[in-house]
Amino acid sequence: MSYTAKIGPSILNSDLACLGSECIQMLDCGADYLHLDVMDGHFVPNITFGHPVVECLRKQLGQGPFFDMHMMVSRPEQWVKPMAAAGANQYTFHLEATVNAGALIKDIRENGMKVGLAIKPGTTVEELGPWAGQIDMALVMTVEPGFGGQKFMEDMMPKVNWLRTQFPSLDIEVDGGVGPDTIHKCAEAGANMIVSGSAIMKSDDPRSVINLLRNVCVEAIQKRSLDR
Ligand SMILES: O=C(CO)[C@@H](O)[C@H](O)COP(=O)(O)O
Ligand SMILES: [Fe+2]
């Protein structure tokens, strides 16, 4: 068991006019990484930002913070090089958005980034399975991608459980509606990379929320290791 609990705030619902300082606040509050949601208005019915913003963030924040790019875009192949040049660390693309996941995985690696592979709620985890040995992280969406602040879909947990059983060392991320009320389900199922947007951003005490999410995850990881 080589994975650890990591909390990645999603800055989608933050004040995007102050993106840099919002990210710095999250890191100061103990975030392990930043989950940056890229939407193209085509793969999802919303638009956010692209690699020029990521480049500015990297300049402002320095080399330290880990940027997990959640690419909710129709042609993920198109943005690999620009995102790598902008300073992205991990390129998480959607399985539904490509016809050649193998070539894309190779390209992401050749451009020096880690590989994340995401599935929407309607995609079965068995479709992701064949790629799991070639990626760094699997992202199980727990809402329909496109917007922050939606209700957590508990019926996605069997996917997480299946992945944890089949791939004991894989980083498994959950994203959508995750906060203090839903973290236990995610942690018990085996998720270790926790994306949380509104629950952290809207809290008066983001540090406590981040700590709570991490503690629940750490406990679940310890319990799983004792049960083995
Ligand atoms: O990718 C997405 C939405 O498509 C997420 O990263 C959300 O932005 C997370 O926000 P909450 O659901 O936690 O508010
Ligand atoms: Fe996301």
From TrEMBL:
The keyword Acetylation does not apply. Its cofactor is Co(2+); Fe(2+); a divalent metal cation; Zn(2+). CDD domains: RPE. Substrate binds at residues 10, 70, 146-149, 177, 197-198. Its EC number is 5.1.3.1. GO terms for biological process: carbohydrate metabolic process; pentose-phosphate shunt. It comes from the Eukaryota. GO terms for molecular function: D-ribulose-phosphate 3-epimerase activity; metal ion binding. A divalent metal cation binds at residues 35, 37, 70, 175. The keyword Cell division does not apply. Binds 1 divalent metal cation per subunit. Keywords: Carbohydrate metabolism, Cobalt, Iron, Isomerase, Manganese, Metal-binding, Zinc. The active site is at residues 37, 175. It catalyses: D-ribulose 5-phosphate = D-xylulose 5-phosphate. NCBIfam families: PRK05581.1-4, rpe. Homodimer. Belongs to the ribulose-phosphate 3-epimerase family. Catalyzes the reversible epimerization of D-ribulose 5-phosphate to D-xylulose 5-phosphate. This is Ribulose-phosphate 3-epimerase.
